[in-house]
Amino acid sequence: MIAALLLLSGCESARHDQLIELGFTRPYLDGYQDGCHSRKEQAVTHHDGFRQDPERMYDDQKYANGWQDGYEQCYASNTEYH
Fold first, then answer.
1. Structural domain boundaries in the chain
2. Rounded to an integer, what distance in angstroms lies between the CA atom of residue 26 and that of residue 15?
């Protein structure tokens, strides 16, 4: 289990670096990281661990899009662990 989490965190880091290289903005990257973290924690705790800024979700479309993309991408990448 620990090895799987370490592997997953490495994938998240590599994906984050790719998004930076592609020119994604800081709000999108923040949202992506929070969404991905939330999906991974949900897989472990089932209810706890969500990381989301409600004000930014409402006011900042780039953050909201990044959060949703991160949440979905980390789910798609980790389906074998569910």
1. 2-81
2. 14
**Residue 49 main-chain phi, psi, to 5 deg:** 100, 0
d(CA 40, CA 49): 8
User: Could you give the C-alpha distances from 6 to 2, 3, 10, 45, 61, in angstroms and in order?
Assistant: 6, 5, 6, 17, 30
| CB of 31 closer than 8 Å to CB of 56 | yes
- For residue 77, give both structure tokens: 């990448």
Q: Which of 73, 80, 77 is nearest to 8 (CA)?
A: 77
| Helices marked H in the chain | 2-21, 26-45, 54-59, 61-77
Query: What digits encode the pLDDT tens for the residues 46-55?
Result: 566 688 899 9
Q: Report how far Cα 52 is from the mean position of its chain's Cα atoms.
A: 10
* pTM of the shown model: 0.70
